[in-house]
Amino acid sequence: MKAGSSRERSSGRKNSGIDVPQFFIREGDLSGDTAFIRGDDCHHLVNVRRIRKGDMIKIRDAEGKGYIARISDINTTEIKLSVLEEYGPGPEPVEIYLYMCLIKGGNFDSMIQKAVEVGVERITPVVSERTVPDPVKKGNEKHVRWNRIALGAAKQCMRNTVPEIAFPLDFSEAITQTFTDIRIIAHPDAGTGLREYLSSRQKPDSVSILVGPEGGFSEREILSASEMGWMPVNCGATHLRAETAAVILPSLVLYHWS
Questions:
Q1: Would you say 207 and 180 are in contact if contact means Cβ atoms under 8 Å apart?
Q2: What's the CA gap between 163 and 258, in Å, rounded?
Q3: What are the residue ranges spanned by the domains of the chain?
Q4: Distance CA 99, CA 63 (A)
Q5: Which CATH number fits domain 8-87: 3.40.50.720, 2.40.240.20, 1.10.1760.20, 1.10.10.10?
């Protein structure tokens, strides 16, 4: 920030009552104390939320920094903002990389929304032996929709960044591509519980979690994952639905190391 800038650093508490979801601005849309919102977000704010000149809004840049801004001008293609305050990206939690086997219809869409709200950093769809949906059918259309859902959820829950939804991977690729120290594969028949396993490990920077489809993983897949360093864990006394496990597991990991 330049000396003499009108932007005031703060903890973000002063204007915490602003009743508008935050919006993400792209690189190049912020210069000094001026920012712009364009595209779909501009359309949404103008035509749906009916914002007006002088209204306050929260925005966040690609580095995760948040800003309180006032709308200074509106037209059909862009909204011009005057940046008033800046606040940092907040504390760095454990990064969660979710590898989620494809599940039917709207369940996968709902899972993305909830996982983003919980705090998952990245979601990679996985095709396993018992996966039912066809990953090729409307593949690009689904990928665009998934990332749109992630963006909307990140706005609504005030995430620092927008989690990426990757293109689907085969199970054999998914278990070899991860780089995290801790790798967990959900398996209801595993002899080790999640809490027991987490308590035996030091806090990592990142954790990978692999969740199966409605029919679970085959024994062959569990063996293959174990050989690649994935630890089978159970979630407790009950067998969770796939979309439930995809939200509960990251939540428990983040809670344990918060």
A1: yes
A2: 19
A3: 8-87, 95-256
A4: 24
A5: 2.40.240.20
- pLDDT tens string 84-98: 988 766 666 899 999
Give me the residues of the chain with pLDDT under 50, please: 1-17
CA distance readout (Å), 124 to 56, 102, 115, 172, 246? 35, 10, 12, 13, 12
CA–CA separation, 231 vs 225, rounded Å? 8
- Smallest Cα–Cα separation from 55: which of 47, 64, 63, 46? 46
The predicted pLDDT at position 12 comes to 37
Tokens of 15: 């204007």
The two tokens of residue 227 are 């050989």
Q: Which of 111, 187, 192 is nearest to 150 (CA)?
A: 111
**8 A C-beta contact, residue 230 and residue 210:** yes
> Which fold would CATH assign to domain 95-256?
Alpha/beta knot (3.40.1280)
pLDDT at 185: 97
- For 240, half-sphere exposure in the C-beta direction (CA atoms, 13 angstrom radius) is 16
- Residue 21: the pLDDT is 67
